[in-house]
């Protein structure tokens, strides 16, 4: 059920870099939102590799990025509930429909929240009018990556946020990772429940522990692979990049397991450790060790200092560098040039770095959606970007 | 629910219809109206069919299938290989396999999967009956065809452990089953392929 990630061991040179002026091979061409956040209905068309949403605070720029982030599995850039995305005072449901062109194939992706009434608040997804069984099917259409102000505290905040960030990075190159992570979580919660109910059914617990071991080890290996390849990408880019290089240090969440041995042996070791820790885990009311305890430590490489100690601006620059290196990795490994959602990134950069960011994005050949309160921030993109002015209904 | 405009009888019908899988309050209302409008063509025959189903259809005491006979049509079909038993979660999975004409075998319906989160334990499933059935003799091969979910796999593990020492060959439905795909929803070609390539454990 959970093959460890099979990723190439070496990094090949990027495929055909895009000739300047040509369109990214994977891009959003149209977007319709209905009853979504502050929009009752809005139709947009995009014609460039750069799309800029500019307008006042509260105009609805981030809301548009959120709509685009629904082209990826999960609940989008804000991790909000679908009910929160439905327009207040609207029908209670919403529609987000995007026309995508990816590697010369046009696809229509539609997320719809039906108006409330008995059914659970989950979105209905159609890809080219066909109902998608799982949101993972989106990964066959495109890849969407983002950087938002909410991620500013990533290095100083809770490990859970970094773990989610890490898993999203893995998912973009290894689509099986999402299912692996949610199954792991479910197996763990099931085991915790049996332990807390004092149901020490050895065979049942063993069945769950076998899956936790299989899934957890596969997760650890996939995360390790991603970290290794990302490290290589960062090193490759280091000399040319205006953004500081990050050094990554992954802790797997397992104390015992040494992931250099064959996966089957590691699985066995993890399985036995889980079996031994039933008593301790029952007393603790949680599973003390495992893939759910992983963390990604990030260092400011040049200063060999934890990123958490770097200045606010330095942290932001580190994060941008990381996201761009990841975007490059995704383009190389997944066969899709990722679509980037960069919320309020430009405002934090000095003009030199800002221009460098634009050039890097152009070089990557990806489509980037960016926001800012002031159109002037994007002057360096003159003639290369769709400049879309966003104004809330009350302003119009 | 809005105040009734048509009396408590129709409200009760709507409420019951809304409990059917796939029907929400809105579609239940439509269905009820449809039934009432087509009294002779639909409501009367449906009422009779439901009464008959209630009176005659039961659960096969051997395999857990639903039929008007006990043992069921499948269990008494001598053209079938009764020595091969396919273990499925639910009757709907049995039906899916039958539609796919994947195997000419007998079945065992577990009646669910082990799920601590939903409070389903071994005693809620027909695992005991499965073991009794094997101990009674005649079953040579067991094909475990549960879904590729955490609960399904845990249940498979549990059953395999309980079968230890019994004289039966156990195979498992190969993972030709797509991720997230539940047996009931698989297209018939995929199912037939998965059944053919089942792996011995
Ligand atoms: N469910 C909803 N229904 C209606 N309006 C909403 C809903 N959720 C959020 N809003 C409104 O959407 C508006 C725009 O939000 P958004 O975050 O997109 O602004 P923005 O343009 O990114 O602003 P800023 O420059 O401050 O980041 C907010 O004023 C908020 O009140
Ligand atoms: Mg915003
Ligand atoms: Zn039967």
TrEMBL record, chain B:
<keyword id="KW-0234">DNA repair</keyword>
<dbReference type="Pfam" id="PF21176">
    <property type="entry name" value="RecR_HhH"/>
</dbReference>
<keyword id="KW-0479">Metal-binding</keyword>
<dbReference type="Pfam" id="PF21175">
    <property type="entry name" value="RecR_C"/>
</dbReference>
<keyword id="KW-0863">Zinc-finger</keyword>
<comment type="function">
    <text>May play a role in DNA repair. It seems to be involved in an RecBC-independent recombinational process of DNA repair. It may act with RecF and RecO.</text>
</comment>
<dbReference type="InterPro" id="IPR015967">
    <property type="entry name" value="Rcmb_RecR_Znf"/>
</dbReference>
<dbReference type="InterPro" id="IPR023627">
    <property type="entry name" value="Rcmb_RecR"/>
</dbReference>
<dbReference type="InterPro" id="IPR000093">
    <property type="entry name" value="DNA_Rcmb_RecR"/>
</dbReference>
<feature type="domain" description="Toprim">
    <location>
        <begin position="83"/>
        <end position="178"/>
    </location>
</feature>
<keyword id="KW-0233">DNA recombination</keyword>
<feature type="zinc finger region" description="C4-type">
    <location>
        <begin position="60"/>
        <end position="75"/>
    </location>
</feature>
<keyword id="KW-0862">Zinc</keyword>
<protein>
    <recommendedName>
        <fullName>Recombination protein RecR</fullName>
    </recommendedName>
</protein>
<keyword id="KW-0227">DNA damage</keyword>
<dbReference type="InterPro" id="IPR006171">
    <property type="entry name" value="TOPRIM_dom"/>
</dbReference>
<comment type="similarity">
    <text>Belongs to the RecR family.</text>
</comment>
<dbReference type="Pfam" id="PF02132">
    <property type="entry name" value="RecR_ZnF"/>
</dbReference>
<dbReference type="Pfam" id="PF13662">
    <property type="entry name" value="Toprim_4"/>
</dbReference>
<dbReference type="InterPro" id="IPR034137">
    <property type="entry name" value="TOPRIM_RecR"/>
</dbReference>
């Amino acid at each position: 059920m959970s093959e460890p990630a099979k990723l190439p061991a070496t990094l090949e040179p990027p495929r055909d870099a895009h000739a300047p002026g040509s369109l990214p091979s994977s891009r959003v061409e149209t977007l319709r939102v209905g009853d979504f956040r502050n929009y009752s209905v809005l139709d947009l068309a995009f014609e460039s590799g750069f799309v800029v949403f500019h307008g006042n605070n509260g105009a609805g720029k981030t809301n548009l990025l959120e709509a685009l982030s629904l082209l990826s599995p999960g609940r989008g850039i804000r991790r909000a509930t679908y009910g929160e995305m439905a327009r207040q005072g609207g029908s209670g449901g919403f529609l987000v429909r995007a026309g995508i062109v990816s590697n010369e194939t046009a696809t229509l992706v539609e997320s719809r929240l039906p108006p409330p009434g008995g059914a659970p608040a989950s979105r209905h997804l159609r890809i080219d009018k066909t109902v998608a069984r799982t949101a993972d099917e989106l990964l066959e259409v495109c890849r969407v990556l983002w950087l938002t102000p909410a991620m500013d505290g990533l290095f100083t905040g809770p490990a859970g946020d970094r773990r989610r960030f890490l898993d999203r990075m893995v998912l973009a190159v290894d689509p099986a990772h999402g299912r692996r992570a949610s199954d792991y979580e479910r197996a763990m919660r099931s085991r915790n429940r049996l332990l807390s109910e004092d149901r020490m059914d050895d065979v049942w617990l063993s069945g769950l522990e076998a899956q936790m071991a299989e899934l957890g080890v596969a997760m650890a290996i996939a995360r390790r692979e991603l970290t290794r390849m990302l490290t290589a990408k960062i090193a490759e880019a280091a000399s040319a990049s205006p953004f500081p290089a990050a050094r990554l240090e992954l802790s797997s969440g397992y104390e015992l397991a040494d992931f250099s041995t064959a996966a089957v042996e590691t699985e066995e070791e993890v399985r036995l450790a889980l079996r031994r820790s039933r008593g301790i885990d029952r007393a603790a009311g949680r599973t003390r060790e495992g893939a759910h305890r992983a963390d990604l430590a990030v260092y400011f490489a040049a200063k060999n200092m934890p990123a958490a100690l770097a200045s606010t601006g330095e942290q932001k620059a580190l994060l941008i560098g990381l996201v761009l290196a990841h975007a490059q990795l995704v383009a190389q490994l997944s066969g899709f040039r990722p679509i980037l959602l960069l919320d309020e990134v430009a405002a934090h950069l000095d003009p030199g770095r800002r221009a460098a960011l634009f050039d890097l994005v152009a070089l990557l050949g990806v489509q980037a959606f960016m926001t800012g309160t002031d159109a002037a921030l994007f002057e360096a993109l003159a003639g290369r970007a769709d400049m879309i002015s966003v104004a809330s209904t009350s302003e119009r | 629910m809005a105040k009734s405009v048509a009396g408590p009888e129709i409200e009760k019908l709507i409420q019951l219809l809304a409990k059917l899988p796939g029907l929400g309050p809105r579609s239940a209302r439509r269905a009820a109206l449809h039934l009432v409008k087509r009294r002779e063509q639909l409501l009367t025959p449906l009422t009779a069919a439901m009464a008959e189903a209630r009176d005659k259809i039961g659960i096969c005491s051997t395999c857990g299938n639903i039929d008007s006979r006990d043992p069921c049509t499948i269990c008494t079909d001598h053209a079938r290989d009764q020595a091969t038993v396919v273990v499925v979660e639910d009757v709907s999975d049995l039906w899916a396999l039958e539609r796919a004409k994947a195997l000419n075998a007998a079945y065992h319906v577990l009646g669910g999967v082990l799920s601590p989160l939903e409070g389903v334990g071994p005693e809620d499933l027909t695992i005991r009956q499965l073991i009794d059935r094997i101990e009674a003799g005649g079953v040579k091969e067991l094909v475990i065809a549960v879904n590729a979910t955490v609960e399904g796999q845990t249940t498979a593990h549990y059953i395999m452990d309980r079968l230890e020492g019994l004289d039966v060959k156990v195979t498992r439905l190969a993972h030709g089953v797509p991720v997230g795909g539940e047996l009931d929803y698989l297209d018939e070609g995929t199912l037939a392929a998965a059944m053919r390539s089942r792996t011995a454990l």
